[in-house]
Amino acid sequence: MKNYSAFEIIGPKMIGPSSSHTAGAARLGKIAGKLADYDIKKVKFMLHGSFAKTYRGHGTDRALMAGILGMKESDEELKESLRIAKQKGIDYEFIEADLGEVHPNTVKFVIEKSNGEKIDLIGSSIGGGNIKVIEINGLKLEFTGQYPTVITRHKDHPGIIAKITKILAYYKINIAFMSVYRQDKGEDAFMVIESDNKLEPKFIEYIKNSVEDIKNIYLINSL
After folding, report:
1. Which domain CATH number covers 204?
2. What residues make up the domain containing 58?
3. pLDDT digits (tens, 9 = 90+) for 38-58
4. Is there a contact between 189 and 154 (Cβ–Cβ < 8 Å)?
5. What is the pLDDT of residue 199?
6. Do residue 46 and residue 94 come from a single domain?
7. E-assigned strand segments in 55-129
8. Of 49, 52, 60, 183, which alpha carbon lies 20 to 30 A from 125's?
9. Do 22 and 48 share a domain, yes or no?
């Protein structure tokens, strides 16, 4: 028999009727927003399964947009997020989609930044406000956002991982979990490091400036 935490039973502090459809949706949106540096010109929300069928009634649309705007699931302005997005000039649409063999509460964010850069992210709300990101820019990976997380996109060649972990050790950053993914040998690769320590933006800048062949680096400290 599965053991349930108090968090799963009681649920998170939030605006809205459902921890899966609103709290989890807002947290997914916040990760997508962070990856785009909250610089969003257009966003398409591709909704799968029960997200697609009930998103209006459960406020999933407003929760996803609230996260994109940087709001927490408990923010009183969450219910006004669509209006706020329009005021900010963000072009958005919600589309029902079949995303394949994924959790019923899954969404794909297709984001265009003001400079034309595109960011795609697929994530699932798995219950109790908990989430799981399963794909970024077409590359399958997995992390939960429960820990301070660094994500690097870099060229796949020897030495990159060693350099980054050496910097982490120097700053006494303890790695809780680490995973490495790549598209193909010698092509783009992603590294996901979940840490026991809060990570400062200046630390991320140091990695970016001192390790060659890092194309992007993202910091997700807390949701």
Report:
1. 3.30.70.260
2. 6-137
3. 999 999 999 999 999 998 888
4. yes
5. 84
6. yes
7. 91-96, 106-112, 118-127
8. 183
9. yes
Listed residues 113, 137, 161: the one ending a domain? 137
How far apart CA 95 and CA 38 sit, in angstroms, is 21
For the chain, what is the domain count?
Answer: 2
Neighbours of 207 (CB within 10 A): 19
Tell me phi and psi for residue 9, to 5 degrees.
-80, -50
Residue 143 lies in a domain: no
- Summarised one tens digit per residue, pLDDT across range 124-171 is 999 888 999 999 888 888 898 889 998 888 888 888 899 999 988 988
Mark whether 57 and 130 lie in a shared domain. Answer: yes
19, 129 Cβ separation under 8 angstroms: yes
pLDDT tens digit string along 52-76? 999 888 899 999 999 999 998 888 8
Task: Tell if the pTM clears 0.90, that is, is over it.
Answer: no
Quote the mean pLDDT of the chain: 87
Q: Is residue 195 within 8 Å of residue 148, measured between CB atoms?
A: yes
From residue 133, alpha-carbon distances to 26, 29, 96, 141, 179 in Å are 13, 11, 19, 7, 13
Based on the domain organization, do 112 and 25 belong to the same domain? yes
Angle at 156 between CA 159 and CA 141, to 5 degrees: 115
Phi/psi at 181 (5° precision): -135, 150
